[in-house]
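Hi C.,

You asked whether I'd gotten around to modeling the 371-residue construct. I have! Everything is below, sequence then structure, no commentary in between.
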Amino acid sequence: MLWVWLLLQALTLVGVAQYWRHVPTDRKEEAPGGVSMLLSVRDDWDGGADLIARLKAQSAPFRLVLATSGACPAADALAAREGDWVQVVAAGVADDEGQKVHKLRAALRALRAEDRYLVFIDADIVPPVRLVGRLLFPLVRGKADIVTGYRMLLPEGAGMAALVGAVEMQLATLPRSASATMPWGGAMAMTRAVADRLNLDAVMAGRLSDDMAIGLAGWRAKMRLRPVRDLLVASPVAGDMGSLLGFGVRQYRHILTNSFGMWASATAVVAVQAVGWLWAIGWGGWAAVAVGYGAAWGRGLMRALIVAAVLEPDQRRAARRSLLWDAALPFVVTWAHLAVQIVAAGSRRIGWGGWIYWMRGGTVARMERVA
């Protein structure tokens, strides 16, 4: 059993090493014309001063399309001040699909003839200056059909938020290939031609998760989905234990309600690691525990190198709080990961963005606004 445990831990090390090995150093960018960025915002959006400043500093120019329900004063004020590059699209309120999806579909219908590249982002990210240029590079060079970055959760403290960040870091640093990449809607891009070929408006209709719907459609169409490994995009995370665990459950419930096979595969992989840790601590003895900790520290070191290579200095410090969990209590990180995966299977009900959604077959069966 010890040799099986040793092999399992070696494979986890190889996986993170593969990610580190493929982080590009040249980081080439493109800045073509005709780029439209789609951003869905809630009615209570505060205008995102830091986000807008970072978007203005991007190395590649674009037009910003803010998709709202029609009742977002901050979005209207921004468009009034900076209408030369900001457009607001009012989608109204959905009744049979995710509110974010509803807004993005309205934004797609408002595209102009000259919009040749589409970039999708989320309002809670902290985008590096190279974000747009890096996403566009594979598209302009004809190396991909859909391009994506990935989220790097940055905890504000060292407690539960850092634990959730450690779980997410396991996912963020998985080795990726064009045949096994699922796009993340927080930093994603495609050409207008690809969006038209997929019939993106129809693909997202009735769905709750925009990126899952797009990714699955891309797989079915045998498109090239390419990750940009140096785009681990900072996304602050904070909150109490309930809200943070609820975030993790929601993410896996999105996966489960769209693809049971994908959820089952991910859960099986984590379950093997979780059971292995249970054996190591309960029956494996000091040698088994030493193997587990040795692999955890090795993964932590490589993840620290990845973080140092792709994040800004203050973001690196926040990310290291999550790395401490995997160095000190790697079994807790694994067990927490498995727990949210299992809890996600307990219901088809998803609370998100001020709404509660009941899912059936990947589509929204019913929705209700949270008081």
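If it helps when you're writing up: The radius of gyration is 21 Å.

Thanks,
B.
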